[in-house]
Amino acid sequence: MSKRTRIRFIINPTSGTNSRVDVAARIREHLDERKYVHDIMYTTHAGHAPELAHQAANEGIEVVVAVGGDGTVNEVARGLLKTETALAILPKGSGNGLARHLKIPMALEGAMRVINQRNVITIDSGEINQHPFFTTAGIGFDAYISSVFAGNKKRGLQTYVELVMKEVLSYKHLPVKASINGKSLETDCYVMAFANAAQYGNNAYIAPTADIQDGLLDVCLVRRLDLVKALNLSYCMLTKQLANPDSAEYFKTERVTVQTEEDIMYHADGEYLGKAREFEVKMVPLSLKVLVP
Ligand SMILES: Nc1ncnc2c1ncn2[C@@H]1O[C@H](COP(=O)(O)OP(=O)(O)OP(=O)(O)O)[C@@H](O)[C@H]1O
Question: Which residues form the DAGKc domain (predicted)?
């Protein structure tokens, strides 16, 4: 009999909108016990999951499963960066950007089947001002939305879409100086998104051609937005197409620096990180092992 793999599930009990489901019982029901020896831990506060994940890697546990949304995935993955321990995902949030990019099923049975297959690849991660991200980071409008959403009691896709519709035409661009691929650019910036995965979540593709193993960031720059551009960009994001050059420009690069004269908001994987005037965004190639279909 082949050796059983040690696996730890880290559950964020606050994530998702369906709190009545007993996730631990369903994990036990679907896990292939011939392949795995498992245990389950719960986070007790924001910022707990990186500690738990790092501790699991130190114990030599081979797979750690993030059970939650993109916030939980980010925290668990941060704790596993550059270790031999692989991340797995049981999606429980509303966006699930990394899980969707990796084609991990949204339903628990399907995601558990992927875990039971034990197929591991290594992916890139990104850093914005030294804070790791796995799906996207950004400055400008997307970070502003993260900041408002963070203070919102109601969660979920509908709340998110309502918020974007309400704010999208009132948010104002700022002038920035950027360096991309060694070239300087002075531009207005409504949003500059830095993508490791192709989508924000919910199949909203900000960087349709992003490859999570190519060592490159996909940058999407929207200089200014009006109603026509907003409609073009939304349509292209939802149909996985590049927007026309008038609405958005795309670059592939290993590193970007940005300077602004006014504070500008930034986020990593949808988590609002605050404001800054200087940014360094870069790739950390092949830095995280992940279980995929
Ligand atoms: N026990 C806990 N109590 C309170 N907050 C927690 C706890 N565990 C984790 N968190 C925080 O909850 C935040 C949100 O989690 P997550 O993104 O996984 O769920 P979600 O908000 O329901 O999903 P989505 O972002 O897809 O809507 C995380 O950024 C994390 O810091």
Answer: 2-132
